[in-house]
């Protein structure tokens, strides 16, 4: 898989699958979640309510992932919603699950490209260095016959520099 590290807004990135750092309720939130819901509009929240009622009555567990339609966001095929660990109270290993489960869902949906934000590095407090180390480890151990490109989207230049540094070591 080709790995691209870019700075930007994930709602503007072109990829078959766009990953959301979702709230466990699936009902939207701030950061990436807020931006994705704002762009996708009310149909996304309707699908999320249906998912809650039918499949996840207690919400998504940390590290779990689920797909929805993309509702026109950059002609993506799907959105993948995954819940990151809270740095100060959860097991950081769950961050690996977020990435692995999202990659699996992308493959199941025949996605050739997938864009990730730096899950759990905003409101959930994971240092960007730790995020980069974990994502590097996951991607270097993950082989896919379907996914050709993984796009890691960092919101700031500083975060992108940290990712670039760790991925070149
Ligand atoms: P979490 O609750 O999992 O920490 P956040 O959305 O608060 O999720 O933050 C995750 C990361 O996404 C942070 O590094 C934040 O700067 C970044 N971010 C926020 N908005 C966007 C966006 N529109 N596109 C890409 N990254 C974003």
- Strand and helix order: EEHHEEHEHEH
How many E-type strands? Answer: 6
Q: What is the 3D form?
A: globular
- Which secondary-structure class do the elements indicate? alpha/beta
Let me know the largest β-sheet.
6 strands, mixed
Give the CATH class: Alpha Beta
Low-confidence regions: none
As a percent range, the share of helical residues equals 25-40%
- What is the alpha-carbon Rg in Å? 15 Å
Bound molecules: adenosine-5'-diphosphate
- Could you name the CATH topology? Leucine Aminopeptidase, subunit E, domain 1
Number of H/I helices: 5
The overall pLDDT, averaged over residues, is: 97
For the largest sheet, list the strands in their spatial order. Answer: 1-6-5-2-4-3
Distance separating the two termini: 18 Å
Task: Give the tally of structural domains.
Answer: 1
CATH homologous superfamily grouping: Leucine Aminopeptidase, subunit E, domain 1
């Amino acid at each position: 898989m080709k790995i691209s590290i870019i700075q930007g807004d994930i709602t503007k990135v072109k990829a078959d699958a766009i990953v959301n750092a979702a709230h466990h309720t699936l009902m939207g939130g701030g950061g990436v979640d807020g931006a994705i819901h704002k762009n996708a509009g009310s149909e996304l929240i309707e699908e999320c309510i249906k998912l809650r009622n039918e499949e996840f009555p207690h919400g998504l567990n940390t590290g779990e992932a689920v797909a929805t339609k993309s509702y026109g966001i950059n002609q993506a095929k799907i959105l993948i919603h995954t819940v990151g660990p809270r740095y100060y109270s959860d097991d950081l290993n769950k961050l690996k699950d977020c990435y692995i489960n999202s990659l699996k869902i992308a493959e199941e949906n025949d996605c050739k490209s997938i864009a990730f934000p730096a899950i759990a590095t905003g409101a959930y407090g994971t240092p960007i260095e730790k995020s980069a180390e974990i994502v590097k480890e996951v991607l270097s151990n993950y082989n896919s016959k379907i996914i050709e490109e993984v796009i890691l989207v960092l919101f700031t230049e500083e975060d992108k520099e940290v990712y670039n540094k760790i991925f070149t070591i």
